[in-house]
Amino acid sequence: MNNPQLRVLISDVEIQKRVVEIGAQITRDYKEGDLVLVGILKGAFIFVADLARAIHRPVRMDFIGISSYGKGKTTSGEVKVTKDLDASIEGSNIIIVEDIVDTGVTLSYLIGLLHNRKPRSIRIAALLDKPERRLRPVQVGYTGFTIQDEFVVGYGLDFAEEYRGLKDICVLSEGDAG
Ligand code: IMP
What are phi and psi of 20, to 5 degrees? Predict the structure, then answer.
Protein backbone atom coordinates (compact mmCIF):
# COMPACT_ATOMS: atom_id res chain seq x y z
CA MET A 1 0.00 0.00 0.00
CA ASN A 2 1.58 3.24 -1.13
CA ASN A 3 -0.57 5.93 0.38
CA PRO A 4 1.38 8.12 2.84
CA GLN A 5 -1.86 9.13 4.58
CA LEU A 6 -2.55 5.53 5.64
CA ARG A 7 -0.85 3.72 8.52
CA VAL A 8 -1.75 0.09 9.22
CA LEU A 9 -3.24 -0.19 12.71
CA ILE A 10 -4.62 -3.76 12.59
CA SER A 11 -3.44 -6.12 9.86
CA ASP A 12 -5.74 -8.42 7.94
CA VAL A 13 -4.07 -11.42 9.62
CA GLU A 14 -4.91 -10.05 13.08
CA ILE A 15 -8.45 -9.23 11.98
CA GLN A 16 -9.07 -12.72 10.61
CA LYS A 17 -7.71 -14.36 13.76
CA ARG A 18 -9.97 -12.26 15.98
CA VAL A 19 -13.05 -12.81 13.79
CA VAL A 20 -12.53 -16.58 14.02
CA GLU A 21 -12.35 -16.27 17.83
CA ILE A 22 -15.55 -14.23 17.98
CA GLY A 23 -17.30 -16.69 15.67
CA ALA A 24 -16.28 -19.58 17.93
CA GLN A 25 -17.56 -17.71 20.98
CA ILE A 26 -20.91 -17.02 19.30
CA THR A 27 -21.15 -20.69 18.27
CA ARG A 28 -20.67 -21.67 21.93
CA ASP A 29 -23.12 -19.03 23.24
CA TYR A 30 -26.02 -19.86 20.91
CA LYS A 31 -26.49 -23.60 21.15
CA GLU A 32 -30.15 -23.47 20.19
CA GLY A 33 -32.79 -21.18 18.75
CA ASP A 34 -33.01 -18.97 15.77
CA LEU A 35 -30.03 -16.64 15.21
CA VAL A 36 -30.04 -13.60 12.96
CA LEU A 37 -27.05 -11.40 12.22
CA VAL A 38 -28.27 -7.87 11.61
CA GLY A 39 -25.52 -6.05 9.73
CA ILE A 40 -25.44 -2.28 9.75
CA LEU A 41 -24.82 -0.94 6.27
CA LYS A 42 -22.58 -0.09 4.82
CA GLY A 43 -19.55 -0.36 7.08
CA ALA A 44 -20.25 -3.82 8.56
CA PHE A 45 -20.70 -5.71 5.30
CA ILE A 46 -17.23 -7.28 5.27
CA PHE A 47 -17.30 -8.11 8.98
CA VAL A 48 -20.72 -9.79 8.54
CA ALA A 49 -19.41 -11.87 5.63
CA ASP A 50 -16.37 -13.10 7.57
CA LEU A 51 -18.21 -13.53 10.87
CA ALA A 52 -21.01 -15.57 9.29
CA ARG A 53 -18.40 -18.05 7.99
CA ALA A 54 -16.76 -18.25 11.42
CA ILE A 55 -20.04 -19.23 13.14
CA HIS A 56 -20.57 -22.97 13.01
CA ARG A 57 -24.33 -23.22 13.42
CA PRO A 58 -27.26 -22.10 11.25
CA VAL A 59 -27.55 -18.35 11.01
CA ARG A 60 -29.73 -15.98 8.99
CA MET A 61 -28.60 -12.60 7.79
CA ASP A 62 -30.38 -9.33 7.33
CA PHE A 63 -29.19 -5.77 6.87
CA ILE A 64 -30.34 -2.37 8.03
CA GLY A 65 -29.13 0.92 6.65
CA ILE A 66 -28.54 3.66 9.19
CA SER A 67 -26.88 6.97 8.62
CA SER A 68 -25.57 9.10 11.42
CA TYR A 69 -22.54 10.60 9.75
CA GLY A 70 -22.22 13.14 6.98
CA LYS A 71 -19.28 13.14 4.63
CA GLY A 72 -16.80 14.34 7.27
CA LYS A 73 -15.29 12.64 10.27
CA THR A 74 -17.65 13.92 12.95
CA THR A 75 -21.12 12.75 13.80
CA SER A 76 -24.09 14.85 12.79
CA GLY A 77 -25.96 13.49 15.81
CA GLU A 78 -28.87 12.62 13.56
CA VAL A 79 -29.81 9.00 12.94
CA LYS A 80 -32.10 7.82 10.19
CA VAL A 81 -33.03 4.45 8.71
CA THR A 82 -32.12 4.39 5.03
CA LYS A 83 -32.99 0.70 4.50
CA ASP A 84 -35.10 -1.43 6.83
CA LEU A 85 -34.78 -5.15 7.58
CA ASP A 86 -36.40 -7.49 5.05
CA ALA A 87 -37.88 -9.91 7.59
CA SER A 88 -39.54 -9.95 11.02
CA ILE A 89 -37.23 -10.54 13.99
CA GLU A 90 -40.01 -11.35 16.45
CA GLY A 91 -38.95 -14.25 18.71
CA SER A 92 -35.44 -14.49 17.20
CA ASN A 93 -32.03 -14.08 18.81
CA ILE A 94 -30.43 -11.05 17.21
CA ILE A 95 -26.79 -10.06 16.98
CA ILE A 96 -26.36 -6.54 15.66
CA VAL A 97 -23.10 -6.50 13.73
CA GLU A 98 -21.40 -3.11 13.65
CA ASP A 99 -18.06 -2.02 12.27
CA ILE A 100 -17.22 0.48 15.01
CA VAL A 101 -18.85 1.90 18.12
CA ASP A 102 -17.90 5.53 18.46
CA THR A 103 -20.31 7.88 20.25
CA GLY A 104 -22.85 5.05 20.64
CA VAL A 105 -25.62 7.23 19.16
CA THR A 106 -26.29 4.87 16.23
CA LEU A 107 -26.44 1.71 18.31
CA SER A 108 -28.53 3.09 21.15
CA TYR A 109 -31.06 4.28 18.56
CA LEU A 110 -31.02 0.94 16.76
CA ILE A 111 -31.39 -1.13 19.93
CA GLY A 112 -34.51 0.89 20.83
CA LEU A 113 -35.92 0.41 17.35
CA LEU A 114 -35.30 -3.36 17.22
CA HIS A 115 -36.39 -3.92 20.82
CA ASN A 116 -39.88 -2.73 19.86
CA ARG A 117 -40.07 -5.59 17.34
CA LYS A 118 -39.94 -8.16 20.18
CA PRO A 119 -36.88 -10.27 19.41
CA ARG A 120 -36.03 -13.01 21.92
CA SER A 121 -32.65 -11.40 22.67
CA ILE A 122 -30.37 -8.67 21.34
CA ARG A 123 -26.57 -8.53 21.55
CA ILE A 124 -23.98 -6.43 19.77
CA ALA A 125 -20.86 -7.58 17.95
CA ALA A 126 -18.57 -4.68 17.09
CA LEU A 127 -15.27 -5.15 15.34
CA LEU A 128 -13.88 -1.93 16.79
CA ASP A 129 -14.67 0.11 19.87
CA LYS A 130 -13.55 3.67 20.61
CA PRO A 131 -14.73 3.99 24.25
CA GLU A 132 -13.17 7.44 24.75
CA ARG A 133 -15.74 8.99 22.44
CA ARG A 134 -18.85 7.47 24.00
CA LEU A 135 -21.84 9.79 24.51
CA ARG A 136 -24.49 7.07 25.04
CA PRO A 137 -23.86 3.94 27.10
CA VAL A 138 -23.87 0.82 24.94
CA GLN A 139 -23.19 -2.72 26.12
CA VAL A 140 -21.09 -4.53 23.52
CA GLY A 141 -21.28 -8.33 23.84
CA TYR A 142 -18.48 -9.15 21.39
CA THR A 143 -15.67 -6.66 20.72
CA GLY A 144 -12.92 -7.24 18.18
CA PHE A 145 -10.45 -4.55 19.17
CA THR A 146 -10.53 -1.51 21.43
CA ILE A 147 -8.79 1.42 19.78
CA GLN A 148 -7.85 5.00 20.61
CA ASP A 149 -9.61 8.05 19.29
CA GLU A 150 -8.19 7.93 15.77
CA PHE A 151 -10.10 7.91 12.50
CA VAL A 152 -9.75 4.54 10.82
CA VAL A 153 -10.62 3.18 7.38
CA GLY A 154 -10.53 -0.20 5.63
CA TYR A 155 -12.23 -3.59 6.12
CA GLY A 156 -15.56 -1.94 5.30
CA LEU A 157 -14.91 1.41 6.99
CA ASP A 158 -14.84 4.46 4.79
CA PHE A 159 -13.98 8.10 4.64
CA ALA A 160 -16.39 9.79 2.20
CA GLU A 161 -17.01 6.34 0.61
CA GLU A 162 -13.30 5.71 -0.03
CA TYR A 163 -11.05 2.94 1.37
CA ARG A 164 -13.74 0.34 2.24
CA GLY A 165 -11.92 -2.34 0.23
CA LEU A 166 -8.61 -2.17 2.14
CA LYS A 167 -7.79 -5.50 3.79
CA ASP A 168 -6.13 -3.88 6.82
CA ILE A 169 -7.61 -1.35 9.22
CA CYS A 170 -5.60 1.83 8.78
CA VAL A 171 -5.41 5.19 10.47
CA LEU A 172 -6.18 7.97 8.03
CA SER A 173 -3.93 10.85 8.93
CA GLU A 174 -4.90 14.50 9.01
CA GLY A 175 -4.53 16.53 5.88
CA ASP A 176 -7.55 14.93 4.24
CA ALA A 177 -10.80 16.88 4.36
CA GLY A 178 -13.02 16.39 7.37
P1 IMP B 1 -21.64 6.35 16.47
O2 IMP B 1 -23.10 6.53 16.32
O3 IMP B 1 -20.92 7.65 16.78
O4 IMP B 1 -21.24 5.25 17.43
O5 IMP B 1 -21.10 6.05 15.04
C6 IMP B 1 -20.93 4.83 14.51
C7 IMP B 1 -20.67 4.97 13.03
O8 IMP B 1 -19.80 6.08 12.75
C9 IMP B 1 -19.94 3.77 12.52
O10 IMP B 1 -20.83 2.79 12.07
C11 IMP B 1 -19.15 4.34 11.38
O12 IMP B 1 -19.92 4.34 10.21
C13 IMP B 1 -18.86 5.76 11.76
N14 IMP B 1 -17.51 5.90 12.33
C15 IMP B 1 -17.16 6.16 13.60
N16 IMP B 1 -15.83 6.20 13.76
C17 IMP B 1 -15.32 5.95 12.53
C18 IMP B 1 -13.97 5.82 12.03
O19 IMP B 1 -12.96 5.95 12.75
N20 IMP B 1 -13.87 5.54 10.72
C21 IMP B 1 -14.92 5.37 9.88
N22 IMP B 1 -16.19 5.48 10.30
C23 IMP B 1 -16.39 5.76 11.63
Answer: -60, -40
- Determine the 3-state secondary structure of 110 from DSSP: helix
Q: How far is the CA of 144 from the centre of ligand 1 (A)?
A: 15
Task: Give the model confidence (pLDDT) of 75-110 as tens digits.
Answer: 556 788 999 999 999 999 999 999 999 999 999 999
Question: Using CA of residue 175, residue 158, residue 138, residue 150, what is the dihedral sign?
Answer: negative
**Catalytically annotated residues:** 102
Determine the Cα–Cα distance for residues 108 and 138; give it in Å rounded to an integer: 6
Q: How far is the CA of 101 from the centre of ligand 1 (A)?
A: 6
Are the C-beta atoms of 85 and 66 separated by less than 8 Å?
Answer: no
Contact call for residues 9 and 150 (beta carbons, < 8 A): yes
What residue ranges define each of the domains in the chain, with the CATH number in brackets? 13-150 (3.40.50.2020)
Find out whether 9 and 18 touch, Cβ atoms under 8 Å. no
